[in-house]
Amino acid sequence: MLERIQFQTTKDGVIPLTDQIKECVEKSGVKSGILCAFITHTTAALTVNSFWDPLGHEDIQDEIRRLIPTRVDFKHQHDTPEDAAGHVKCTLIGPSMSFIIDDGKLLLGHSQGIYFLEFDGPRNRECYVKIVPE
Amino acid sequence: MLERIQFQTTKDGVIPLTDQIKECVEKSGVKSGILCAFITHTTAALTVNSFWDPLGHEDIQDEIRRLIPTRVDFKHQHDTPEDAAGHVKCTLIGPSMSFIIDDGKLLLGHSQGIYFLEFDGPRNRECYVKIVPE
Amino acid sequence: MLERIQFQTTKDGVIPLTDQIKECVEKSGVKSGILCAFITHTTAALTVNSFWDPLGHEDIQDEIRRLIPTRVDFKHQHDTPEDAAGHVKCTLIGPSMSFIIDDGKLLLGHSQGIYFLEFDGPRNRECYVKIVPE
């Protein structure tokens, strides 16, 4: 089984994927195993962080933008300077993440949520999910 | 099987988990497979790095603090500025890591160790381990 | 099955591993599963990024060098300042990455390639690959 989660992003948006990924686990019927979430994009990333304060998500994008500012003198000329910065951000955070399934549920801490970080957008994006049982 | 490794951290500490994770592999009896290590916290991360020079671990935390300094003007107000910085550091390094098991052993380079990076603390923390055989 | 991909790097080089990892999938005969790619080094990392513009790879290494400059006052004294910086870069990007195998193929976006990032070099390096079927 391969699940594809499709969604629309906003510019530099932070999109929650926790519920959709939990649904993939439920649908699979797998009681124990490893789940791989993978995005097929190069100007975005996957992360896990706290869902308590949505303003914290803005801080994350703010800090990533501060670390890798969009500038006009990137060597990469294939597309825009913003995309060039987005590629670097993608390498920094990463497009792949592994999770544990136990007792038929996705193992997450009490404050953890799974998020898609958009470094471009608005765009149509997707996240793939594959589960391997123990 | 789900293994839970529990430990106490110090402020901004670097806690070695290599031996405990190797024990999980041994205990599982799995000869070949993939291991997922996952922490359920949002102000900490997992990493693999050299164990030769403990001062190198201080450099890692120093550099992460330099990249994401604790500041009073984060938008995140749910808890302290230090926690707000910790959340960003968590996204930067990540709470999940996959390893290869081969010939009944955890595959690691001759200088690689597995470490828990505390971005808060001192706290009681835990790392979960799930193994899926080939 | 454990596959080992061996290669030679240049100083701060970006080495494509996509074709070799695709070959591992083909050779395994696995139709659906998860692949773990793992490097056994502490001054290098694995990433996925766009293959369209090779100059983008230079930007990635440039930006990582800008974020973690080589400096003489690292606490780590076991080897050179360049290696000390390389260890921090290794933690920032990471030595492990999980991929999805579906329909007998490695799942990658139309512009995604898998790359080894050298933070030292030139050196002989290797990447291990383990596949677990669904």
From TrEMBL, chains A, B, C:
Q: Name one Pfam family in it.
A: YjbQ
Q: Which Gene3D superfamilies match?
A: YjbQ-like (2.60.120.460)
The protein's superkingdom reads Bacteria
Record-linked SUPFAM superfamilies:
YjbQ-like
Family under the similarity heading = Belongs to the UPF0047 family.
Q: What is this protein called?
A: YjbQ family protein
